[in-house]
């Protein structure tokens, strides 16, 4: 009986005390403050710039970063000042509890004499916060003359989940230009040939009609054609510009000097930002257009499908730009791209070609990156299994791999999602890009989501080779 | 192997208490004179039943140390268990038809679950600790059990009496998951306590509590706090923890019996995303790894009041009232891995069912007559809720009321001991669907040579589910919609069973059963292309599903040996008007066998269970080398489940029972398949996950009885 009770007690003890809790409390991470970028340069016109210090995490308490500097041919008070002041040889930049960054201002007071190097090098000396560390970008080189950035980090502001913006990024100048995706409809090529591109960032499509009189076309004439002229359906590949970016493969044929060769086109204006072709109001509608030439200019005729008259505008090529852009909704030219040698990459919605179960599609892509091949920018992907990002040097560049296809980054920097998986960054690849000035950069993507997991917050780091 | 050492150590300590006493299992051929309930006017012997009812006995369950229904059913012929490592759920498939077509009942009434009432059941959520036996009837049983009883009915009958005044039964069960075992974070740990008391010779009460901690399969994965983005975060098989409390009060009077049953069930399933967003900050040379995780908590309560008896020896009644609710809540959050910080925490109801239910059956109107009939009703008022993120409902929460009001009647004509025939019909009224009907004709004939012949023709409708009715997944590249105008699917089945017992001079007892079955489901709901440009899909009643089946099952008992041997061969044909199809019958073979040997002097039972699932075929659309879509015959490889256990009783009155065994001795995990199709973004999977590999268990059960 004793044994029985003992055993029974043992069993009960198991029943009652079998709770598990093996969670450890995690680790406390060090607080790191560092220069956002390792270099900064001034053009002759720039007078002052903010220098950003970023933190590894939200600052737990107030504190101070102490920064020292050394100069080459520059004198504090004569050639530059800082705010907070660095007159004493050090700058004390405050850290505010709860913030993720702080800044100080660098004021350029004078331009260097041409041919003279003039620069200031800042160095992080101390952080007063407990459990902090100085690492990462501990120095910042400020050049008084324009020079290609040695690298840094960028976060193109595509605008969150709907990715409403196209963002043009210039790596060497560390700048970005943000434009709403639907700010334009047609781009008129400024190069040699007379070509018109569709705004594929809102998924436009077009089809040639067999007529040349734009006013004679009615909705009834194109009703049978309309269901086919859309992105995302079988056979849609023939109604879009070739996503390779080859200007000779636009869906709208080369504009001829002979007017009678220039057909009327049915144009599907695509999909509203955040919308869908499958829902009412998602479509941006339809136009009929015809493009002619007038000397070195384009003449655009456009109208709603059932209109018996049309609008006509003259669009000129723009020196130094890839395209002149036009918006139907404003009826005017739109300012979209920076000058063609002022951008390298465009973060945007875009299309790519896809084969599925025997059908070809122009398929829609978010988080797409177009490289500016029209300005000679080329790029290629490197697998981490061949070289790590850190170890990759200019000696490892394979010139032959540099691709003139504007999709060489495209959507290849991320994994496609699936039924139970969100798309994610491919951490095993990075890219080499050659810009228009012949600078080589290596580029590695570090984020496509924000901390809360919302899409549309890409980040990358890059470094001059 | 280190984990195993723990288990073995534990086992050794436990055996220190061992004493050799008599045995408990009475393994006489167990389905000779069993009493069955499923489909009967009154509980009666299996031999008299007009339906062919297969029984899984408590002894079978004990020998397999089955804690829930998923532990047991994979040894049953014509039934396949489909586990999902990514949801932690297990679904039943019977005659190739999934859980939507199989009705799972507890004490004759359907049991609620996250996604349905009686169907779509997650088998792992059905605890078997208070079970008397499990009854399985194949074929459509729409008249007796209503909607969705198309492929068959699985009826779990719970214990409602005890031979002892007091019975206190604690047990613990420790299991490895594959080769993983640890005290807390690995393996499976079950603790249970059951207390029952005979209040008087008429009143009986029982309460039990079980905790089932399934720590998940780690495999190559590294768990929740792994911060690298190499696909290794999380678990291969989701961990979950279940708490189950049940209480029963029963009264056993002369003319009336009554029981009230209460059940509480709680389950927590944790899904840790394998994707880690590293959030590297190259400026500071630090990273900030974050993952998005989900924790699902299901809560079920079930009240069941049943009264049955007769009015002064005349009309018998059997009436149940039940309130059941199952709610699944989701907690989604982002998890900052190094600091273990949860943020962006959102708590919300994920999906739920709330049901008021009653079923009543009245019979024996013609006392002592060969002719009798039964009248019945079945009512249920279901509030169903599915949150926007539980499916593709276009960002809307689906909150719907479904009222179903069925009446049914059947007549039984039993002119003698030999022959009985039973026609029946049910009419389904509902606030949502057109009025449906189910019909049935069952008959039995007992030949001179003890051959029992049964033939059952039955029908049952299957109601569309929320996905089929209310899906709304529309974006730039997709257009997939539910269809509120769907009709119920129509299932019809014909089954013929011939069963004969043989007793040989040397004491060998044999019982053989040959069954032929045919099930036809028409108006099958399928997602079809309703517009090719732009491509749009919608659910429609369009397809057909037909399956035939022949099975031969044998049970035997000889001296201390007993066992079963069964084989089943089936064909499935699908007419897919929704797309290209090939309606050839695709054949599949299943084979099951079990064997038990008792050593009475040792109080020991050795048993082993084996089930072979032959290759399964399915027509799938694939691309040929030219990129054209072609229909090919895909194949899922054959696999077998093999379990073995030893059960031994110790101490006086068999107070201590120890069961030690192994599941999945053949170490089945993934089975290669070409029988599934890929999606738009991915190729077809090349294998299907069916198990987590060979695992071992030990169960210690203690019976403390007072009289």
TrEMBL record, chain A:
Record keyword Signal present: yes
Alphabetical list of InterPro entries matching this protein: HmuY
Tagged with keyword Signal: yes
Keywords: Signal
Top-level taxon: Bacteria
Pfam families assigned: HmuY (PF14064)
Signal peptide: 1-21
This protein's name: HmuY family protein
From TrEMBL, chain B:
Residue ranges of every copy of the TonB-dependent receptor plug domain listed in the record: 47-153
InterPro entries per UniProt: Beta-barrel_TonB_sf (IPR036942), Plug_dom (IPR012910), Plug_dom_sf (IPR037066), TonB-dep_rcpt-like (IPR039426)
Naturally occurring in which organism (per UniProt): Galbibacter pacificus
Location relative to the cell: Cell outer membrane
Keywords per UniProt: Cell outer membrane, Membrane, Receptor, Signal, Transmembrane, Transmembrane beta strand, Transport
Principal cellular location given in the protein's record: membrane
Membrane topology: Multi-pass membrane protein
Signal peptide span: none
Annotated protein name in UniProt: TonB-dependent receptor plug domain-containing protein
Family, similarity comment: Belongs to the TonB-dependent receptor family.
Domain of life, source organism: Bacteria
